[in-house]
Each structure stands twice: as structure tokens, then as C-alpha cells.
């Protein structure tokens, strides 16, 4: 029976979803609950929430890359693994410098970077040591923040690059999972500084926080990134809730792969399904389906 419902829902998203009006969301929530089980946050169609979801989707509009690039999964098949983009030579960026923020107990992503010859500069102020060492790892017990706070072991991205002699470097690979601090960090950075990074792989947190000041902070950070970088993949972390508002599916935790706009070419074809075969659930259970993610500008 469960497999039957999955087939029905796949058809629902593939053929019917784009024609639904918001009054039919209860039916969609029922189908979604069957697949997503407890990872469903019930919410009515609130106009302000819908406008926020729409703006978030527009700022995270996914485009596919053309030319000799391919998607790869680095790290584990579940939580800790992310999608990145490589060229025909397997390179992820024009330098072999990578910064990795948020380590916890998993360095599988960083190990894959090291295997490609990257020097990986790692930061996490919540751990006492790395779970595994590597000759290409450069770890420091420090956290990333919008402003320097030595007493809390927090430092800015600009100061970290300067300390490593990378203040004039470009073509850097950036991975970030810092539990909600990312919003303030990106709001504090200039567009010129962001252009140092060929790729940014990030987990965005607290996307279902509807406080007006939080929404403003989130959308301004995404707008800042969108000036220089293009989202080429999004994936819902199924460890968090998902909200169905209108015909938009928005998870609380979103993994995003960005590439620097001026170094890549993009297809003009509409992306009907953002899911890739490389995607896997972060935790046990079914992956969260995002349906029609892209929202066209008015």
C-alpha cells in the first residue's frame, strides 16, 4: 500500500501540482504525510508565510550547469555528504584551497576533498579534536561568526583567511554547516569577498522561523549570495520539518550547492525536478520530496 501511495504522489507532483490552487492543500498534505510521516509541519495557508516562501524559493532558484561539468557526491551517503560540481578533470575549484566550517564527528566530506589534493582548513569550536586526522587537514578550535569574539572562540571569515595567508587568494571551495550562524555571516560579507569562492556548499537552518526580523535577515543573506553565485542544487535534510504553504514545499533545513556565476554557463531549460540520483536521506526514513521547487519571477 505504501508503494502505491508513493506512485500516486509522484504522479501528483509530476502532472497535477502546478495546476493546484491553495484551497486544495489539505489533500496534498495528506499525500505528503503518507510519505514523509512525522516530518510534516502542518500549517494553514498564511498569506505572509506564502510570500516569504515564494521569495525564498525565488532566491534559491535552481539552474543546471552546461558544458563539461558534472554533479558528484562528496562525503557519506547520508548526513555529512553534499553535492558538488566538478569539471572534466575532477576539479571543484581553480585552487586547491578549501574551508570547512562545522565538523562535529564527521570528516567524510573533508576526506574526499583531501583525496583530490585540497588543503582543508577546518574550524569547529564545539569539539576538542578531529574524529580523524589527515595530512591535508588544518584544524583550529574556532567558530565562524559575523564579528570577532575571542572569549567565545569566534572569528570572522576575513580574519581566518588572512591568518592563513589567503586574503589575496581566489578559487576557494567553501563548505559551511554552522547551525544558523550562516545568516549573520553572509550578511556581513561583501560581494567582492564572496567572489573568492568558486563553490559554496551550505546547509541553511531555521527556514521555517516566521519572525519578521528573522525573515528579513534570511532573505537579505540569500539576496547577497545571489548577486555573485547561482544555486545549482537544493536538497531537503529530512531531519527537520517541512512546511506546505500554497503550492510551495519548504523544508526547515536546506542543503544548497552554489557556484560562482562568472565561471560557469547555465542552461535556460526549466528545472522540473531538483532531485538528483545522488541525493540520499540525511537520517533514516524517506527523503523529502520538494516537487516543483523553482518559482518564476512575476
What does this 3D model show about the protein?
The protein is an alpha/beta fold. It has a single domain, classed as 3-Layer(aba) Sandwich (Rossmann fold), CATH 3.40.50. It contains eight helices and 13 strands. The strands form four sheets. A seven-stranded mixed beta sheet has the order 5-4-3-8-9-13-10. Strands 1-2 form a two-stranded antiparallel sheet. The chain has a two-stranded parallel ribbon with strand order 6-7. A hairpin with a 2-residue loop joins strand 11 and strand 12. The longest helix has 17 residues, at 212-228. The radius of gyration is 19 Å and the shape is globular. 36% of the residues are buried.
Beta percentage is 15-25%
Let me know the largest β-sheet. Answer: 7 strands, mixed
First-to-last CA distance: 40 Å
Number of helices: 8
User: How many β-strand stretches?
Assistant: 13
- Low-pLDDT runs: 4-41
Order of helices and strands: HHHEEEHEEEEHEHHEHEEEE
Short synopsis of the structure:
The chain is an alpha/beta fold. The protein has helices spanning 2-16, 25-36, 47-59, 108-115, 157-163, 182-188, 191-194, 212-228; strands at 69-74, 82-87, 97-101, 119-123, 137-140, 143-144, 154-155, 172-176, 197-204, 229-236, 242-245, 248-251, 254-260.
Characteristics:
298 residues, alpha/beta, two-stranded antiparallel sheet, seven-stranded mixed β-sheet, 22% strand, globular, Rossmann fold
Amino acid at each position: 500500500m505504501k508503494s502505491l501511495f508513493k506512485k500516486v504522489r509522484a504522479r501528483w507532483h509530476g502532472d497535477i501540482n502546478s495546476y493546484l490552487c491553495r484551497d486544495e492543500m489539505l489533500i496534498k498534505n495528506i499525500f505528503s504525510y503518507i510519505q514523509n510521516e512525522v516530518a510534516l509541519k502542518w500549517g494553514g495557508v498564511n498569506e505572509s508565510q506564502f510570500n516569504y516562501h515564494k521569495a525564498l524559493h525565488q532566491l534559491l532558484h535552481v539552474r543546471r550547469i552546461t558544458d563539461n561539468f558534472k554533479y558528484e557526491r562528496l562525503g557519506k551517503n547520508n548526513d555529512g555528504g553534499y553535492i558538488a560540481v566538478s569539471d572534466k578533470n575532477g576539479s571543484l575549484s581553480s585552487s586547491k584551497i578549501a574551508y570547512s566550517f562545522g565538523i562535529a564527528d564527521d570528516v567524510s566530506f573533508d576526506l574526499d576533498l583531501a583525496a583530490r589534493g585540497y588543503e582543508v582548513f577546518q574550524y569547529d569550536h564545539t569539539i576538542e579534536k578531529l574524529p580523524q586526522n589527515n595530512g591535508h587537514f588544518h584544524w583550529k578550535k574556532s567558530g565562524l561568526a559575523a564579528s570577532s569574539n575571542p572569549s567565545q572562540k569566534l572569528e570572522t571569515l576575513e580574519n581566518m583567511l588572512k591568518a592563513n595567508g589567503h586574503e589575496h587568494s581566489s578559487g576557494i571551495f567553501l563548505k559551511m554547516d554552522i547551525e544558523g550562524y550562516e545568516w549573520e555571516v553572509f550578511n556581513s560579507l561583501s560581494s567582492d569577498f564572496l567572489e573568492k569562492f568558486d563553490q559554496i556548499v551550505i546547509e541553511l537552518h531555521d527556514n521555517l522561523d516566521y519572525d519578521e526580523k528573522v525573515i528579513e535577515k534570511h532573505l537579505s543573506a540569500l539576496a547577497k549570495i545571489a548577486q555573485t553565485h547561482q544555486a545549482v542544487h537544493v536538497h531537503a535534510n529530512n531531519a527537520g520539518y517541512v512546511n506546505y504553504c500554497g503550492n510551495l514545499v519548504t523544508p526547515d533545513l536546506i542543503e544548497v550547492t552554489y557556484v560562482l556565476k562568472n565561471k560557469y554557463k547555465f542552461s535556460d531549460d526549466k528545472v522540473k525536478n531538483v532531485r538528483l540520483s545522488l541525493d540520499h536521506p540525511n537520517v533514516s526514513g524517506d527523503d523529502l520530496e520538494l516537487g516543483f521547487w523553482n518559482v518564476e519571477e512575476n
